[in-house]
Write a structure and sequence with these properties.
- The chain contains 13 helices and eight strands.
- The protein has 288 residues and is an alpha/beta fold.
- An eight-stranded mixed beta sheet has the order 3-4-2-5-1-6-7-8, with helices on both faces.
- Strand 6, helix 8 and strand 7 form a beta-alpha-beta unit.
- The longest helix is centred in the last third of the chain and has 19 residues.
- Adenosine-5'-triphosphate binds next to helix 2, strand 7 and helix 10.
């Protein structure tokens, strides 16, 4: 039985012993999630990734929406390989990474990935060693998760360095987002959650929604949540989805694209505390 706490202690020691200069890149993991489905997570994750790339970062999207993986569909591709086929065919991680526009890298969990938490130790170790080799190779790994509070989703979210919570201003979406914060906070009081208000009518509505939401989490959960930004409702998002192209590339000057560029600039400007990166994510996600 692999001991998660022991592995994490060893990783902290390893990180401390390496000088910062020796590390090429820090490789942060960011989970993009929501309470309610269909609020715009996958579109956000994909276009946020592309916007970080435009700001000279190297980014990989890991589609871990186990039921309805669709980052590849948004890119007009159909991913043949996945973590599931990597295990089946004994491939390496480099065999399953796909390259999208502007050097964006992406991988998907695949349908067999559903049984991730029932895998034997040999397979868990294989996933660990393959995915660990991404440490230092990319700056960000963005996880596009499913909606809601499934067991698998919680494992992914709690293992990530940062959580970006997407909600729309609609009360149903807000209520479900609040449930997510409550659950995550009860599991890990130090979890970093940042809010995106998507599909707002205008910035004023976005700001108001974010202010109300963060005031409620602070008052009732004593949880401080940062607001990352607002993306307006923009017909070009849906037009780009129909063309299977990312809206940031297809319509770079549309309202949603401009708002997203602000969001990624803000993300990069916010100083982030020391975290354990992809290896820490894998240890927390795979081993109990
Ligand atoms: N800012 C926006 N403006 C207009 N439409 C949007 C916007 N964001 C998302 N949408 C619409 O919402 C649809 C759903 O978006 P998306 O697939 O990204 O949601 P999701 O949260 O990933 O869904 P799921 O929970 O099923 O994974 C998109 O196809 C698009 O039509
Ligand atoms: Mg999605």
């Amino acid at each position: 039985m692999i001991d998660q706490a022991k592995l994490l202690r060893e990783l902290v020691k390893e990180k401390k012993s390496k000088s910062k200069a020796a590390e090429k890149r820090q490789t942060r993991t960011i989970a993009v999630t929501s309470g309610k489905g269909g609020v715009g997570k996958s579109n956000f994750a994909l276009n946020f990734a592309l916007s970080l790339i435009q700001k000279n970062k190297k980014v990989l999207i890991f589609d871990v929406d186990l039921g309805f993986a669709n980052v590849d569909v948004l890119l007009g591709r159909s991913n043949k390989e996945s973590i599931a086929t990597m295990l089946e065919k004994d491939f390496s991680i480099w065999d399953i990474i796909e390259e999208g526009p502007n050097g964006l890298l992406f991988i998907s969990g695949g349908s067999g990935f559903k049984d991730l938490f029932q895998l034997d130790e040999v397979k868990l170790n294989k996933i660990f060693s393959e995915l660990s080799s991404l440490q230092g190779f990319v700056d960000y790994i963005i996880l596009d998760t499913g909606a809601g509070l499934s067991y698998e989703n919680l494992r992914f979210i709690l293992a990530a360095d940062d959580v970006i919570l997407v909600t729309t201003p609609e009360p149903t979406s807000i209520t479900d987002a609040y449930s997510i914060v409550k659950m995550l906070h009860s599991r890990d009081q130090n979890i970093h959650i940042k809010l995106i208000i998507n599909q707002c009518s205008n910035e004023k509505e976005g700001k108001q929604t974010a202010e109300n939401f963060t005031a409620v989490t602070e008052r009732f959960l004593e949880k401080q949540i940062g607001t990352l930004g607002f993306i307006p409702s923009d017909a070009n998002v849906s037009n780009a989805v129909k063309k299977q192209q990312p809206f940031l590339l297809e319509f770079p000057n549309c309202q949603a694209s401009r708002a997203l560029q602000k969001v990624s600039s803000k993300y990069l400007q916010t100083p982030l505390p020391f975290k354990l990166g992809i290896k820490g994510f894998l240890i927390k996600m795979l081993f109990k």
